[in-house]
Amino acid sequence: MALRTSKPTLNLREKVSELDRPVGNHGAQLMRSESPEKSFELVRAGRKNLLINGSCQVAQRSTLSVSNSNSSVQYGGPDRWFQYFYNSGEQARYDFKQTSPASSLVEKGFKSAMHLDVTTADTSIHADHSLWTAQRIEGINCDHLRWGTDFAKDLTLSFWIKSTVPGYYSVVLAIDANGDNRYITTYQVEKKNTWEYKVIHFPGHKTVTIDHDNSVGLEVKFTWMAGSNRVADPNAWDTQGNKYGASGVDLANIFSSTSNNIYLTGVQLEEGNTATPFQHLSYGEELALCQRYYWKPVGTHLHLGMWSHGVADTSGIRFQSYPWPVPMRASPSLVYDDNAGNSSRVGVEHPDKTDHTNINVSFQHTLDGTDGGYKYPYGISGFSVGQSGDMIAYNFEANAEI
Amino acid sequence: MTIKYKIRKNPFGDSSRDQIEKIGECIIPRDLGNTDYQKFLQDVKEQGIEIVEGDDVITPDYKEQRLAEYPSLADQQDMQYWDAVNGTTTWKDKINEIKTKYPKTNTGSTTVGDVPSWVQTEVNKLT
């Protein structure tokens, strides 16, 4: 008996070619990843932007008109971003505000930008002068960068910028606010009044650690002015002293005319050496992140119930406890008035419905909120024990910025 | 020297909850994480303790002083009842004692107290 067998035709060359899938560079990296951790790092899943309000959508404060108050942070305009004048002699002045960018950027997903609008020119930069726009990142949010070890993670900064003045600008990554460890580098704005996307890489620091606390861990500075005594060799970590700009290039002077403007948005600082698309958060998420550092009531004043009661050997006034929207970075400084020109005083509506001003109370607040404030001893004239009224702190602000 | 800061003492004696009024600007908690508090300590270090004044010390007027010592209304009614039953003058005597102790000439006053010692102690800790 004859046995007939057949086998399918196998073209080995064809099979091998099927293995050659059209996989891009990133796909190939993913295929080569040997662990879920590696794949996760490649995909950059999870919250990645170390900066808050990089898209400038939150602006609880009004526009800031800067002063040359040296060594003081000046907040206003988009939340979390501050201005800093190194010296007290800088002549330049500008308004810093939230603005809506042109449609060309809206198409890329951004509806807001920070806007530096020059109001006083400084055409001849003094050697000692410097100023910048910056954001500070809490040390407690930098643990995963592993700085101070051999496994220190590199960082990538990406942003959109539009400037009236093309040329070279400096950007700095600093470890803690007052420390000298800085990495100064440059980027070039190539065209006037055109949105350009910039990517900057910072190597991780293997010998300097970032403290795990609520003080400054990292600071990103966009340096707008750096006189000849305020520049240093770029592109290396160094103990820079009072240097905030890059040497070796002619830095652009945005303050050459009061007609000049700089716009900045989509600012993202992330782990790794790749600038991934900007991480857009919902307005509510971004607002809550900002409120850890600063908040104010939408209606501008804080309205709390108060009542009189006996305390120890006299009478006193207590008012209701009130939690802040989110726990703040530290116990905040409180700004308020009585709507009659008296700072740090409140207005009170008495039980007889008459209004009184210039009342000094204590909020006894913490980072969580007011712990039930008081006026003690002696309460407020006109209140009998057991009577209640209303206390109003006008133009209320709680500030726990770094 | 211009006074820039005023201490607001916690009246219940917990000095860790004292606060600082930056005059004309804001109320600062005693929290080393607060940058305004850091600035306060730095300012005192650089400009001297003279830029700080202590909390107000309030001496109340006779109304407040008397109110603080009058027995409660319930106790006063109790005194009046037993005075009527026993023919005594306990209630009248007590009220008169308080009125005499705090005469109407006590119009009250406000003075500035000392700067608490913790201010200099904290400033001395600055490097």
Short description:
The complex is a heterodimer of chains A (402) and B (127). By secondary structure, chain A is mostly beta strands.
Give an overview in words.
The complex is a heterodimer of chains A (402) and B (127). Chain A is mainly beta and 402 residues long. Helix content of chain A is 9%, strand content 36%. Chain A is built from five helices and 25 strands. In chain A, strands 16, 17, 18, 20, 21, 22, 24 and 25 form an eight-stranded antiparallel sheet that branches. A seven-stranded antiparallel sheet of chain A has the order 2-3-6-11-8-9-13, with no helix packed on it. Chain B has 127 residues and is α+β, with helices and mostly antiparallel strands. In chain B, helix 1 crosses helix 5 (117-124). The two termini of chain B are 24 Å apart. Chains A and B meet through strand 20 of A and strand 2, strand 3, helix 1 and helix 2 of B.
Shape of chain B: elongated
Counting copies of identical and different chains, the oligomeric state is heterodimer
Question: What structural class results from the helix and strand content of chain A?
Answer: mainly beta
| Strand proportion of chain A | 35-45%
Which spans of chain A have pLDDT < 50 for at least 5 consecutive residues?
none
**What is the helix content of chain A?**
under 10%
Shape of chain A: globular
State which percent range the strand residues of chain B make up.
15-25%
Mean pLDDT of chain B: 92
Uncertain stretches of chain B: none
Query: Percent of residues of chain B in helical segments?
Result: 40-55%
